Amino acid sequence: MLFAITGGAGFVGSNLAERLLSEGHNVRIIDDLSRPGGKVVDNLNYLRKKFASEMSSKKFEFVKSSVANFEEMKKNLAGADVIYHLAAQTAVTTSIKDPVHDFATNAAGSFNVLEAARQVADNAALLYTSTNKVYGNMQNVKLDEKQTRYEFADSRYKLGISEDFHIDPESPYGCSKYAADSYFLDYHRTYGMKTVVFRCSCMYGEMQKSLEDQGWISWLVGRIINGKKITIYGDGKQIRDILHIADVTEAVSEATKKISATAGQVFNIGGGEDNSISLLELMSFVQKETGKKSLYEFADWRLADQKVYISNTEKAKKIFGWQPGISKEEGIRRQIKWESTQ
Ligand SMILES: NC(=O)c1ccc[n+]([C@@H]2O[C@H](COP(=O)([O-])OP(=O)(O)OC[C@H]3O[C@@H](n4cnc5c(N)ncnc54)[C@H](O)[C@@H]3O)[C@@H](O)[C@H]2O)c1
Predict the structure, then answer these.
(1) Long-range CB pairs of 334-338, under 8 A, 24+ apart, other chains included
(2) pLDDT of residue 303
(3) Whole-number Å distance between alpha carbons of 129 and 174
(4) pLDDT for residue 117
(5) pLDDT band at residue 213 using 50, 70 and 90 as cut-offs
(6) Residue 91 — φ and ψ, nearest 5°?
(7) What is the CATH number of the domain that holds 95?
(8) By CB distance 3.0 to 4.6 Å, which of 6, 33, 105, 244 could disulfide with 87?
(9) Active site residue 173
């Protein structure tokens, strides 16, 4: 089986590639290495070293290419049995500064991947990682404010936000990701392609090359253990349901194995209520675990920053039998260990 992974040098992609190569599959990573900070190349080098013999036997290939180039995508995806489309401009803040680039990568680039797949690999299973940002700011959802966190006040959301929640993307990133999200679902309806959409919440874990505006668990943990100051945008009580990367790769793997049930479907994928945590709670947990004090200051809220987002993962459980398995405490401990080696 050949697995093609766009954005495969990135955080999710390199973890998926590692898992697939360890399982003996053939993997082709397609990435233009454009993630800001230039550090995703370290992920690629790690994989190249670990799977050197797979590289020399061409079971593992790396193609430096941008999803913005349709003709290249046709060549890159030819022969793939499974395509994971992860390549993206991933920060809301960057999308606001440069919406043209954001659109070219996330909307037009994703369309290129999908249409190229239709032309050269139309029988492939094709999974796209969308985002909870398609639900927008969710301003109409009533919240309770507690000492360290916000909570949903409405019992309808006791298990979190499900896939039928009103779509209202905010920010260029939300819009460009949603454009691709709807194309992927529609290519199942219109052309019968085996497309699956994951609307992901906050993912974290090894090989995440965090920046201040993307990958907040890794960023905060790294800053605290290195004694560096953190800026908290808002009041720090905002809640996300964090999902460890090992659970992400498991979800992707299970959804792919059960493609006859998952094709044409959208799933909210996150850590769920049990793994919800606020910035303030994360800082105090890391402080307790490491004995290092968090140094921080507050700044204004960022655009499109939901005060509470928790995924309802019941549909994923029902259709492909997946539930998060790694608790937030265990996952954050793993993150502390990882960041200490960076
Ligand atoms: N990490 C999260 O918490 C999170 C949450 C919701 C959704 N997502 C989505 O999941 C996917 C993977 O996220 P990630 O955290 O691994 O991000 P990442 O930035 O680590 O990886 C993305 C990769 O895409 C590559 N890339 C960017 N533009 C490209 C282009 N034009 N052509 C080819 N490659 C390009 C980058 O170099 C990078 O290696 C993205 O689509 C992101 O929008 C992530």
Answers:
(1) 334/205, 334/206, 334/244, 335/204, 335/205, 335/217, 335/218, 335/221, 336/221, 336/225, 336/286, 336/289, 336/290, 338/205, 338/206, 338/218
(2) 83
(3) 12
(4) 98
(5) confident
(6) -110, 135
(7) 3.40.50.720
(8) 6
(9) yes
87 Cα to the center of ligand 1, angstroms: 5
Pocket test for ligand 1, best of 5, 6, 12, 76 (most atoms within 8 A of CB): 12
CA dihedral sign, ordered 333, 145, 90, 301: negative
Average pLDDT taken over every residue of the chain: 97
Number of domains in the chain: 1
Mean pLDDT of 335-340: 96
Q: Write out the two tokens for 261.
A: 């049930």
Stretch 286-312: mean pLDDT, rounded?
A: 94
Q: What is the DSSP letter of 301?
A: P
* pLDDT value of position 132: 97
Q: What is the tens place of the pLDDT at every residue in 241-286? A: 999 999 999 999 999 999 999 999 999 999 999 999 999 999 999 9
The single residue listed with the structure tokens 């079971």 is: 59
Tokens in use for 129?
Answer: 């990682």
- Supply φ then ψ for residue 54, to 5 degrees: -65, -35
Question: What residue numbers bound the domain in which 169 lies?
Answer: 2-340
The sign one gets for the Cα dihedral 157, 162, 165, 171 is: positive
The rounded Å distance from CA 175 to ligand 1 centre is: 16
Mean pLDDT to the nearest integer, 49-75: 98
Element (H, E) at 36: none
Q: Ligand 1: distance of its center to the CA of 125 in Å?
A: 19
Atom of ligand 1 nearest to the CA of 87: 24
Q: For the chain, give the number of residues.
A: 342
Catalytic residue among 173, 183, 204, 233: 173
pLDDT, position 38 = 86
Q: Supply the pLDDT for residue 164.
A: 97
Query: Tokens standing for 22?
Result: 């360890």
| Distance set, CA 64 to CA 7, 30, 76, 309 (Å) | 10, 6, 10, 35
